[in-house]
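Sequence in, structure out.
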Amino acid sequence: MGSTCIITDDSAQFTNPGFLKNPGLEFLSHQITFNTNQEPPRSQIKVTDFPKQITPDFLPRITPPSMEVISFCVEKNLSAYDDIFIILLSKEISPLFERTEKLCASLHGHANIHLIDSLNTSLGLGLIVQYAFELIEKGFPPADVEKSLRLIIPHVYTLLSTPNLSYLQATGLLDVGQATVGEMLSLSPLFLIEEGVLNPLQKVKNQHAAMEYFTEFIDEFDNLRHVALIQPAHASLSESRFLRQHIDENFPTAAYSEYPINPFLASMIGPRGFGIVVMEQL
C-alpha cells in the first residue's frame, strides 16, 4: 500500500489527545491579528484574554495562509507521498479552500491530491480528519477513503451559540442593530453550520436554554458515533454533566468529549461562545 499524508488547517480541534503527534499530519495556519499596538505571537494567544465586546483596540481578523505558504506545504509532500488528502474548513468560512484549489489545479507531481471541503470547522473538522486517518490505518484504498469522507461529511453537524454579539457583528453574521438590541436583552443566538454556512436558527435567553436546545437536537438522531461539546473560555457549562448523562443513557455506544473553544472559533463568535458537534454513525 502506498504512503498517505493529511494536510488540514489550524481551525481544527481533535478529540484524540495524541492525534497531533501523528507523523502524517500537517497544518496550514491562519494568522489572527487584533489591531493592538503589538501583536502577540500565536503561541501566546489566550482566549481567556479576549474581552466580552470588540473594541477599536481589539478587533480580531483572521487571515488565511498565503499562496506561497500553501504551495510550500503541498509541494514538499508531492514527492514524499503517494496520496495527499487536503481536508480544510468550510470555504464559506475562510478563503483557504479556494486558494488551495487554485494552487492544486496547477501542480503536477508524484502524489495524487484529494482536496476536500469539510463544510465544517473546529471539532467538526477535527472529527472528519480523525475519521480519515482511521480509514487509512485500516488499509482502505485512497479512492475509498475519499468516497467515505464525502459520505460522512453531511452527517457531521455543528451547533453554536454565543452572548458575544459584537463578535458576530464583526464577522458579518449580525448587523449593528441586531447586535446592540441582542446584548441589551442578553440574548444568545443559535447557529447551525449547514452546507458550510453558519445559518441562524433562533435566539435563546441563556446558556441553560441553549443546552436544552442542544439536547433536543441530539434526540433527533438514532445512531450517534461521537458528540463533542465546545466549552466557553471563562467558565465551563454547568449543564454539561446533564448532557453527558443524557448521552450515556440514550446513546450508550456514542463517544463523548469536551474541549474549550480555540482562538480561531473564538475570534468568530467570541470567548463565551460554545457549541456542540454531532457525528452520526453510518
